[in-house]
Structures are given as C-alpha cells and as structure tokens.
Amino acid sequence: MKQRLFTPGPTPVPEETLLELAKPVFYHRSPEFKQILSEVVADLQYVYCTRNPVVPLTCSGTGGMEAALTCTVPTGGKVICLISGRWGERWRNICKAFGFNCISVEVPYGQAVAPAQLAEALKQHPDAVAVCATLCETATGVGNDIAGFGKLVASTPALLIVDAISGLGAMECRCDDWQVDICVSGSQKALMMPPGLAFVSVSDKAAKVMAANPAKVFYLDLKKALAKLKESDTPWTPANTLIRAMRQSLKILRAEGIETIWARHARMAEAARAGMQALGLELFAERPAAGLTVAHVPAGLDASTLLKKLEKQYGLKLAGGQDTLKGKIIRLSHMGHVDQFDVLAALAGLELVLLEMGHPVEPGAAVAAAQRVFAQAVAPVPVASA
Amino acid sequence: MKQRLFTPGPTPVPEETLLELAKPVFYHRSPEFKQILSEVVADLQYVYCTRNPVVPLTCSGTGGMEAALTCTVPTGGKVICLISGRWGERWRNICKAFGFNCISVEVPYGQAVAPAQLAEALKQHPDAVAVCATLCETATGVGNDIAGFGKLVASTPALLIVDAISGLGAMECRCDDWQVDICVSGSQKALMMPPGLAFVSVSDKAAKVMAANPAKVFYLDLKKALAKLKESDTPWTPANTLIRAMRQSLKILRAEGIETIWARHARMAEAARAGMQALGLELFAERPAAGLTVAHVPAGLDASTLLKKLEKQYGLKLAGGQDTLKGKIIRLSHMGHVDQFDVLAALAGLELVLLEMGHPVEPGAAVAAAQRVFAQAVAPVPVASA
C-alpha cells in the first residue's frame, strides 16, 4: 500500500534528498565540507530571512533550545516563557533543569499568547534576560504572533528566543524584520530532511550576551560554534552526510521561493480546515498555524481506532494528541514536501474512515470544500479560439 | 577515480547501510521504531560485550562524553583523566567547562598510560568520583589498557568512563569483563555508519551514582534516556533514520562475529605496520591500537604534499596530524568496513607517492610485507588429487 506521512515531524523527504543520503561518506575536515556548509548556511539565512549567522548543531531541536538558553542566561537569570502548549512547556522545563528563574505566561491549550500578555510580563519583570516563544505550537496547531512579541522585546535588554522548529519554512518567519535574536529550527519539519540536525540563528545582541555570559556548556556551546562557523567549520564531528543532504532540500526550497512556500502552506491549511469542517469536525486552534491542522475527535468516536484505520486501511499516517490531549484530537501535518493533492488524499481517507465508523458524513464534502479553496488560487486564462 | 576513505572517522559505510539511509522517513513514536531500537540496542550490547543498557543519543561522540561526565559528577567533583593525546585532553576540557576538579595523568604523545600511573593517582585521590580513559587515542594511534584500568577502578567508589568512540568494534573491548561503567561510542568509526549518533552504556554502579547526582542536564540526560529506553523509546526526537540504518550495519557486524572482527582489525594493523616499516617509515605509537596505523613523516618530506598526492592522484584519503602533530605524522585508518585488500591499496599508493617524492623505496616492498602478514592467517588445505 502506498504510504503517506502526515505526522508533524518527521515529515516526507524529497527523493532527491533521500538519494543524497545514500551517497558514500566523506571526510568532514575538507574543502568539500566547507563548501557544502557555506552553501547550507547561506540558504538557511534565506529561509530564516536573516543576515545573522545560522549555526548547525548535530542534535534534535531540543538540543538547539537548550543551547539557546544555556549560552545566554546566567544561573538564576530570569526568563519569561510564553506557553501555549507542550512545546512552550519545554522552554520552562529547560529553565528548571538549569536553575533559571522561569516566569510562565500561560494560555489554555488551543489559544495563542497575546502580545499584551507579554507586554504586562515585561513591565512586571524588567530584569528578564530572555523571552522564550513558540512560532508553531505543534501540540495544538496554534501559531503565535512572533512579530508582535518582537516589537515588545526589542526595546528591552532581553533576548527574544523563538522555537521555530515546526514553523520555519511553513509559515512567515522574518527573523530580522521581527527582531528575533535566537531562532531554533530542526531538520525534520518543513525543511524536508530526516531528524538529526538543529539550526540556531544568533543576532549581534545575542552574541554580545553570550560573550559576557560565563556559561557552563561544552557540546552545545554556541559561542564556539559561531567562531568555527567563520571558517565554515564545526567544533565537533558534524553529521556531515545529513548536512550534505540538507543542501539538496534547501536548494528545492530556494527554487520554490520562501514567500511562495508560505502561500502554499497557508492554502493547504485553509483547505484542510475547510475539509475538516465539512466533515463536521470542530477545529482546535483559535489562531491556526500553517503547518498542521488540528481538530477535536467527535464525541463517541475512539481516536485511536480512527488513526489506526487511516494507517492500516489507507496508508495515511496522521498523529493524535499528546499528554492531556491524548485521544481528544487528531493532527494532520501538511508541512514540507506536501502538496494540495496530498491534503486531498488525507481528507478523502478521513471521510471514508468516518463513514465506516458511523459518523454522519456526506461523501465528497470534505474534498470538495478543500478543492474550492485550491481553486481560488487559479486565475482563469482565456483560451484562444480555433 | 575510485575513492577510498582511510580517515579515522568518518569511515566507509557498507552499501546495504547507505541504501537504508535512502528509504522514506517514518514516524518515530511507533511500534516500528520501538522494534528497530530494541534490535539496535541488543546488537550494541553484543558489540559492547555487556548486559548493561546502551543508550542512543542524537549527537556526536563528544556529546556522549559530556553526558557521561555531567550526569555522574557533582559540581567540584574530582575526576582523574588519563591523557595520552588530543582525545584524552577532551576529557579534561569537558571537566574544565563544567567546573569539575580534573586530575591529569599525562604521558607524551605516542605513549599509553600505564595502569601503575592510575594506581598511584587513585592512591593519592581516593575521593575521585570518576576515572576517564580512552580506548583508542586516535590522535596518536595508541591503544590504552582498559582491562588494566578496570581492575584498579572496580574496587574504588569511582566510575570507569571510557571513550571507545574510535576503538569499539575495531579492538577488544569487553565492557562487563573489564568492569567499564560507562562506555561511549560513536556511529561513524568501526560501527560503519555516518556521524550523528553516540551510544553510551551504563552499569548498575553508574546508574546508582546518576540517581543520587542532582545534575544540571536536559538534552543529554542519561537518566531520562535510560528510563525511556525501558520502553524502547527516547526522550527527544531521535535521528530515527540513522538508527534504522544502524540496524543494518550492526547486523553485518554480528554476522561476522565480534571476535573475528577484532582479529581482522589486528591483522590489518599488523600488516599496515609491516608495510610502513618496509617503506622505512618510523611508527608513532608504542602500544598501537588496531583501528589505525600512525607513522612519522620522513624528515625532509612535506606531509601536506604527501597527503594531497595520495588523494588527488590515487583517490586515497588518509589523515594527517592534528594540533602539535600537524605535518609530523600520517594516519591510516583501517577500521570498520575495510579489508586486507584496502590496506594493500593504501600501502601501494603510499609506495608510489613516496617514490615520486624521491624517498628511497623498493617498489613492492610494502605490499609484500603486508601480504606476508595476511598469508599467516591462511591455513593450507590439502588439495584432493585427481
């Protein structure tokens, strides 16, 4: 059976990139690697919309998040964590692990943090050294207003640190225009690669804070990584074959163009929402991100059975909820190497399984609703008469 | 031109494993991944010669070394570092970064640390909480006597922590018999995989120390990783496609058999040494490891030219010296997916380049000397008469 991966990371990887991964291994202290790394960094800067250096780390996104905090925050330092779900909570958990003073600004699952909440927190805590936010809260499908946060943080001494792991390359994220100091991403989401790499952009403001901070770090030392990056090198053995393959995925991204990519994801998200609503499903996120669509599981239906049927009968691998949301939501990722026809496939499968499970569904309603969204992007071209 | 990789990491990867890397990406929170991880851990235990759990980490070997120390040593804790080269120095550098009290036991480059030196250090520092050693000092080609260290450390409260990154799978390393508490390895050496994964075995003694140590760790938290490993899971998104490919390389290792692999490497090392000596090269390591052979560059010859000629004219990629040894030595790795005929190729290329550079060489001397070593492993079989 043909398999389609709709989990919010890992996501499908283009065949051209998979073939790069199968190429023979090469030595990493070589002009060849320096050339590859410099191309990858330049293309990441393009995707990040930044002129700041973007450091590659061999680790998952969580390692990049840890590096961002431990390299910049002194012991006991105050960190405002904007929390709209499990991934926002990860910021708090990292703070706890390293003895930082975490000020939590929390909203219920499904909602986004309002810039006004951050403004209030900054007023109460002018000594905060960092503000941690989440571009796309993958646990709930919410997108947060990073531009709004950036305007508030820029005028303070604090750094704006953003987890853009599952948002970067799927939705608008203009690191320089939005004054993001440290932006963390991961290879396995909209950047169309397997997991194993994290990327961290570092602004001048952040670099100055790091230089003055006597951090207890080694493997995840961004200061050391920044210094090595100047020579297109890394402090430790990098996952060099992943970086070589990353170059391929970034070439594909760059050829499509970042704004076109954002528009494609926005359209897929709108279509997925329209399709889900046509199935009578209630959407979960009040300010939805572009990379995934999250819906409540209808009352009386077993989420686990629904997901298993999609996978076993139709090869459609969606994700369920995590932690307290387990069994309550389904998550359809459409980020990265995914197009409108993949979204139609997911909705069509969902229709069929809901029908089979006795949920009242008009066959074709979801795919038609989605298709109407996709049709809006088509400009009619007059056909020359014969 | 046909390329042959003889650098001491990354090393050549079998084609079957490369093809695994090109397979479509899959979801990591799945029964499929649990099955793969449990097979990988079982096969790693076989290679490690241990019944202890072996934790996979998405990072390079250095990340595994950091995890071993930060999870077990309290702030200010005393660590005896046995240093015979650059990689032993890495233990010291990690201690410095995290404020541990490093007691250095050093020998000149090219020599191994004697167990008697460790005995003396343990006598002087009975309060040491860890002893850090290096199985194969890749910077110099020296192999250290881990079995000898284990006998001394086992009767103390200290943990024996071994960097076996470039030794494991190339030379004898019996973690349980030798009483190694934490053994760190990396994917990209004798385990025949690209870089990106580290593996860390944890003894009961080490697990107890970790449980009592309030470590400031998060991404590299071995305690959390051990707990997750009980369910064949990981705390953070693992490099799951690397782990799937790792399974393939481990199957190949297991099919050959670990003792046969050690014998193969020992033979290749002996042949490489015989070949180098037949070329008039002076060997560098007094207690050579089985995974690589290191020789002085003859006086008057430029190391960089030598290495470039090998690479550009013959596709043979060897490594030079690092730091203070730059320009002084050449390093021929024969670990992992390398056989006797690859060693002959490397020696043959070395002969040709040395001849071309005017170094007095008898053509065929090196390959013949190596071949005589390989011939010793051939038991004559009587041929049935017609």
Structure description:
Two copies of one chain form a homodimer. Chain A is an alpha/beta fold and 386 residues long. Chain A has two domains: 15-256, Aspartate Aminotransferase, domain 2 (3-Layer(aba) Sandwich), CATH 3.40.640; 258-376, Aspartate Aminotransferase, domain 1, CATH 3.90.1150.10. In chain A, 42% of the residues lie in helices and 15% in strands. Chain A has 13 helices and 14 strands. Chain A has helices at residues 15-21, 31-48, 61-70, 86-97, 115-124, 146-154, 204-212, 222-229, 240-256, 258-278, 303-314, 340-356, 365-376, and strands at 4-5, 54-58, 78-83, 101-106, 130-134, 136-137, 142-143, 159-163, 182-186, 197-202, 292-296, 316-317, 319-320, 329-333. In chain A, the strands form four sheets. Chain A has a seven-stranded mixed β-sheet, sandwiched between helices. In chain A, strands 11-14-13 form a three-stranded antiparallel β-sheet, with helices on one face. Chain A has a two-stranded parallel ribbon with strand order 1-12. In chain A, strand 13 and strand 14 form a beta hairpin. In chain A, helix 3 (61-70) packs across helix 4 (86-97), helix 10 (258-278) packs antiparallel against helix 13 and helix 11 packs across helix 12. The N and C termini of chain A lie far apart (44 Å). The model of chain A has no long low-confidence stretch (mean pLDDT 97). The interface between A and B is large, with 50 and 50 residues.
